[in-house]
Each structure stands twice: as C-alpha cells, then as structure tokens.
Design brief:
Elements (H helix, E strand, L loop, with lengths): L3 H12 L14 E7 L2 H10 L4 H11 L13 E3 L5 E6 L1 H10 L4 E6 L2 E4 L52 E2 L4 H6 L9 E2 L12 E6 L13 E6 L13 H10 L10 E6 L6 E3 H14 L4 E5 L1 E2 L8 H14 L2 E5 L42 E7 L13 E2 L11 E4 L3 E4 L14 E4 L2 H18 L5 H11 L1 E2 L19 E2 L7
C-alpha cells in the first residue's frame, strides 16, 4: 500500500514510460521500427532487403549504393501505403549501417512494443447462467436470475432462418448485446428487430485485425475469408485463441451479430495467447490500405496496455488509414491492467489493483484508442440482464477504460458469441458458442452498426459515420452516479450505442 504522495510519485514514473529506442550494443539486437522521409528512400530499403546478392546488385546499381549495404535480414516488415518505413531486428552495427546507407532518410525510430487483446481477465460461468458467478471486482453477474436461461454451448439452431437471408425480428435469450442495441429504454424486451427497415451491412466488408477466425463456423455462412496471417507469415488466418472468432461473429454473425450480411476478412496479428506486436499491427493496417475495396470498416479490439501505452507509429498508421483511405475504424477503449493509472484523493491506494475505487484508466493513454479519428468504444453492463422480471439499469463495466477519448458505450459483459478455440468451450465445433467480457467485446457491435450505415451510404466518410453513430446514440443511459470522480475521467460521453431503423 502507499500513501497519496508515493502513489502520485508512482503515477509520474509510470506516465514517463515510453518506447523510444535505447541504443543497442554490438550483438544486442532490438526490434525496431524506422519511418522514412520519402518514397525514394523506400526504394533503397527494398534494395537493401533483397533476398539474393544478384537482386541487390541490380537495384543498387541504379541507386548508387555500396555493396555492403545489402542487409537481407534487416526487414521483417516493409510499410509502403500508410507511410514509408520498415521494421526488423537490429544491433548497433546494423543501425549504423542503415544510417549510412540511407543518408538523411530516417524521419524517426521507435522500439517495437507488445499489443494484446482487450478482454477481461475474469471468466464467466459457462454452464448455468442462473448460478452465481463473480468477477474480479466481486460483483455478481448472474445473482438472482431465473435458471430457465440455460447456457447453450452447442447451438446449431441459432442461425436458422437468418442463414437463408430471411429478415424478421429475432427472439433473444442470451444475445443481450443485440437486445440493447435496438432499444432506447430498459428493461430489455428480448428481441432484435430485424426487418426491411434495418440495414444489415450487405456490400460492406469488416476487417477484423485480431487472432484470426474459425472460418467454418456457422455464424459466417460463407461470408468470411482469410486476409493474411502476420504471426505465421502465410495466407491462412486461422484462430487458435478464439478472441478473433468471437469479435468477428459479434460484428457480423448471422445469429449473434449486428451486421448479418456484411462480409468479413480475418487478418491475424495476435498469437494463441492473444498477444502481438506494434510492428505487425502496423503491417496489417498497411495491408488493409492496399487491399480494401468498397465501403469498409476495421475493428481493433486490442491495444498497448499499461500506463502511458503510446506508440507514435501506431497512432500515425491508424490515423492515415482513416484520413487517407477513408476507412472507418473502430477501437476498444481498453481494459484496465494490473498497473492501473491511479489518482487518489485523501485515501490509501493499492498499486496492485485499485485506488479509492477508481480502477479505470484514461483511454487517452492507450494507443490506438487515443487517436481522434477512430471510434473509441467503452464497455457497459446490465448486472441483471438475464432476469426480465428485475429492475434493470445500465452501468459501466468495472474495468473499462474511460475518459474524453471515448466516443460511445456498448454492451461488453457476458457477450454470447461464436467459440473459436478449445480454451473457450468444452467441445469446439462449428456450432459452439461462449461468453466473453471486455471492451474487446463492445467494439464489434459498433463496427456492425457502422457497416449497417455504410450499406445505405457507401460513400460516407469516416467522420460522417462517427457523427451518425454518436449523435444517434441514446443519451444519458448510464446513471451519472456510476461515473468515477477522478479528474482525468471527466469528459467521458454518456452515450449508449443504438441502431436506427432508418439507417
């Protein structure tokens, strides 16, 4: 434990953390991303990274490069669409050679960093929703709920009717995230109004940059394809963590998704533990910039977690995708990590978990949630959402990042969606489902609403899509008493995701 002064000192130390490149020693390689000033310099990089000596000499001859500038090991990733640059593992000698072979060409450098899925660390009870299941914060999710709502892990009938393109209203039991998105007031009516007045994202492509996807799951009904796998460096973005499958189905699944007719492209940048790197995330964004055609949405349910979790390169890549390529991008606000940003007032605080009840971080400290051009999504909950006889109210998901960088709230606790890994369901199959919690689970619902809008407005700019979603949101849905008092969290918009029937 610590008193206020030492907590504040710890805060300053944490906020000073960054990812600037510390000079490596000879033989001590660091994963580094290097951004170049111009396209001409990128031509020199491509020559330096040529696989063969003969290939290098042909390119180098036209560029006036020395023979020792051939560094085929240098480039793990090359960035050419959002900006010019590359990433690789370099030691001091390598960096010196790069600077000599690319004279006055380097704009800036940044050490690579870890990104991870923004999913809650706690787990829900996957069997009986009527049983009491507690979270890390000690709040019971299912207490007092009727046991008539049995958790169906194997649910082949959930897509019946919808997989044939029939439009009707959907009777709901477990998909409360859908129930919440199409009504202003509570209690939940256990329906998702799905008729001819509601767009379904047809003709729109949602790019899910995540852990890949289980392509054969019934939720996707032939509308999904693999983009690229940046973990295995191949074209098969199969999912071994399950996070990406859950996110993709929440955005555009037939039975559990918002945009039930949108196409999906799975781009794998997270491994079997849900971890990845900034360099691969930037490469994936660059890949989308090159390959996206027609109205598109990108969903990033990931971020650089921890205090002062910034990356200039990831910020600029995300911004360029929106500004220069007109692709609406939806990002999770983040889920608080162990080293939470803490601001205490007249109280003892615990650096391990919470401080005076303020467990949420400011999303403005998490990249890419802090990029103004993206739609940043925080997570909400209804504690007794599965009990239609109880009084219901919207609350903030206890571990959700907040702050002025957040644009909107969406359901993010106990979200029922496709299972894509044996770690998440007892028997993995193409009709298996599971529950998951986090801002990761809130973001795809917003991506689905964005796709629905783009169906009828295919030329809408990302700013227009953002304005429509935030302006049509339900205002003041969350009781103000649930907003934390910490100064840096003031400015969090009290707006709940809503899909307009005439969108």
């Amino acid at each position: 434990m610590c008193i206020l002064g030492s907590c504040f000192l710890a805060l300053l130390v944490l906020l000073g953390a960054g990812h600037s490149v510390a000079s490596p020693t000879n033989g001590d390689k660091k994963n580094v991303m290097i951004i170049l000033k111009d396209v001409q310099s990128l031509l020199r990089v491509r020559a330096m990274c040529a696989y063969t000596t003969s290939g290098f000499k042909i390119k180098a001859a036209t560029l006036g490069m020395d023979d020792d500038c051939h560094m085929p090991h240098m480039c793990k990733r090359v960035y050419s669409k959002l900006f010019s640059g590359f990433s690789g593992s370099l030691d001091a000698q390598d960096l010196a050679k790069v600077q000599r072979c690319l004279p006055r060409a380097i704009l800036y450098e940044e050490e690579d960093a870890k990104v991870q899925k923004l999913e809650g660390k706690h787990r829900s009870n996957p069997y009986w929703l009527g049983n009491t299941s507690t979270y890390g914060d000690g709040v019971s999710s299912f207490a007092g709920m009727s046991q008539q709502y049995y958790f169906k892990e194997d649910n082949p009938e959930i897509v019946q009717g919808f997989d044939k393109g029939e439009k009707k209203h959907q009777e709901l039991t477990l998909q409360w995230h859908l129930d919440r998105v199409d009504q202003r007031e509570l209690p939940l009516d256990r329906q998702y109004k799905y008729d001819n007045s509601v767009s379904t994202g047809k003709g729109v492509t949602i790019y899910v940059l995540d852990s890949g996807a289980r392509m054969t799951h019934q939720e996707f009904s032939g509308r999904i394809r693999s983009g690229f796998d940046f973990i295995d460096d191949d074209e098969s973005a199969d999912d071994c963590d399950g996070h990406g499958t859950h996110v993709a189905a929440t955005a555009a699944g037939k039975g559990v998704g918002v945009a039930k007719d949108a196409d999906i492209v799975a781009v794998r940048i997270l491994d079997c533990n849900g971890d990845g790197s900034v360099s691969d995330t930037v490469a994936a964004l660059d890949w989308v910039a090159e390959h996206a055609k027609g109205p598109s949405v990108v969903v990033l349910s990931l971020g650089i977690e921890g205090p002062s979790s910034g990356s200039r390169i990831l910020e600029e890549a995300t911004r360029a995708l929106v500004r220069n390529y007109g692709i609406t991008t939806v990002v999770a606000s983040g889920t608080v990590s162990m080293l939470a940003i803490m601001i205490a007032t007249n109280s003892v605080c615990y650096i391990y978990v919470t401080c005076a009840g303020n467990t949420q971080q400011d999303a403005c400290y998490v990249t890419p949630a802090n990029v103004p051009e993206v739609i940043t999504v925080a997570a909400s909950d209804i504690p007794n959402k599965f009990d239609s006889n109880a009084t219901q109210e919207d609350v903030i998901y206890y571990w959700s990042n907040l702050g002025p960088c957040v644009d909107i709230f969406a359901a993010g606790v106990d979200v029922y969606s496709a299972c894509g890994s044996e770690k998440r369901c007892n028997r993995l199959s193409d009709s298996a489902y599971t529950l998951a919690t986090g801002t990761s689970m809130a973001a795809p619902s917003v991506a689905g609403v964005a796709a629905a809008y783009l169906e009828k407005h295919p030329h809408a700019a990302p700013l227009e899509v953002m304005e429509v979603i935030t302006e049509s949101a339900t205002p003041n849905a969350i009781n103000e008493q649930y907003f934390p008092p910490a100064l840096f969290l003031k400015g969090t918009p009290n707006k709940m995701l809503y899909i307009q029937n005439d969108s």
